[in-house]
Design brief:
Length: 120
């Protein structure tokens, strides 16, 4: 299993970023996928998830600002983040839920993550 995140960067408050996750080594089209984030010194925070059938779910902090999507033909999952806030600053990871709950637990295969920094 391999997950490779990209698309992070430095953005001003109110700006947008689109994160991408390239997945391989498992049956992507059958798997739910989630985005989680982590701030140094704090635990993982689930952000959003998408089932293989396209149903989505969001943490309250992401609702109305973030949109998760997937492309099963390309084995890709995306996170469009709009109206970014300083509190969104974190390392973002895509993750594979091991059960029916997209909020975790997750398969122990992690990519390197992609850093999002929201600052003026």
């Amino acid at each position: 299993v391999q997950l490779v995140e990209s698309g992070g960067g430095l953005v001003q408050p109110g700006g947008s970023l689109r994160l991408s996750c390239a997945a391989s080594g498992f049956t992507f089209s059958s798997s739910a996928m989630s985005w989680v984030r982590q701030v140094p010194g704090k635990g993982l925070e689930w952000v959003s998830g998408i089932y293989n059938d396209g149903r989505t779910s969001y943490a309250d902090s992401a609702k109305g600002r973030f949109t998760i999507s997937r492309d099963n033909a390309k084995n890709m999952v995306y996170l469009q983040m709009n109206s970014l806030k300083p509190e969104d600053t974190a390392a973002y990871y895509c993750a594979i839920p091991v059960g029916p709950d997209m909020r975790g637990p997750f398969l122990g295969s992690w990519g390197q993550g992609t850093q999002v920094t929201v600052s003026s």
